[in-house]
């Protein structure tokens, strides 16, 4: 429950005081329904190019690929069920309608094989060179393989997908410096928030950076300490995105090493939370001393609803 409340606080901070599905998915890197449907549509069409484009769009949100394979397996299971029981009635009418239309484009044995590939690939994902590559290979297997006992003898069309090999979890290769000015030096402590402000980084990867402090730099290695409140964002693909952004900013390949702190760190995330708390307290004090509010209390016995006061900006 404590972790759930902490996560809710972060969703509220990320969403500007709102806990909406879009903000929560962006923060957590979960797979949206439209991404699942796009992947399944490309698989049904045997379109390898579109399939890899769907993965590239998904990767921009730094998803949890274990969870992505789980959600894909769940959709495949639902499609198989709808093939057997097309009259099945559930509360998710719109979602089942879309999955039912997709299910009509797959042979039952194809769905079974895709489901098996999804759950087996999820189990083996930790052994892949990187999470995105493991996810791509799972989809390419679904595209390439089909059972021998199909009703037709025609091979499934396979798109000419071109995969790219990504760099290690926290190391990024950059082009050699060709006479450009030397990159700015990196200092620890108060320099870290300034560095983050200049980074082209969004979503969960930004949250990972916000929950860190820079402790030292040795050559091309930046050592970061992660506050435990942000440990949920410590995922290889997010570390890779952070390393990429830092390398681009500094104009040279950098590697990051992250350790989890056992003490409360003065991270940008905690500073932002303190600022938000202070603004909220100031707003509440302004309401308490407002003459109109006082008059309403005295004349009508009115009260201010707890939690209803919000800063204006």
Q: Quick check: average pLDDT?
A: 78
Q: Compute the gyration radius: what is it?
A: 25 Å
Query: What gross morphology would you assign?
Result: flat
Number of helices: 13
Using the coordinates above, name the CATH class of the domain at 31-144: Mainly Alpha
Q: Quote the beta fraction.
A: 5-15%
Any idea of the CATH topology of the domain at 31-144?
Zinc Finger, Delta Prime, domain 3
Low-confidence stretches are 149-186
N-end to C-end Cα span: 30 Å
Quickly give the structural class. Answer: mainly alpha
Would you report the number of β strands? 3
Q: Main sheet?
A: 3 strands, mixed
Q: What share of the residues lie within helices?
A: 40-55%
Order of helices and strands: HHHHHHHHHHEEHEHH
Strand order of the largest sheet: 1-2-3
Structure description:
Helix 3 packs antiparallel against helix 4 and helix 5 (65-84) packs antiparallel against helix 7. The longest helix has 22 residues, at 268-289. The protein has 13 helices and 3 strands. The chain has a 3-stranded mixed sheet. The protein is flat and about 75 Å long. Mean pLDDT is 78; it is low at 149-186. Among the domains are: 31-144, Up-down Bundle (Zinc Finger, Delta Prime, domain 3); 191-260, GMP Synthetase, Chain A, domain 3; 268-300. The chain has helices spanning 2-14, 21-28, 33-45, 48-59, 65-84, 93-103, 108-124, 131-144, 191-197, 203-210, 236-250, 268-289, 291-300; strands at 212-218, 221-226, 255-260.
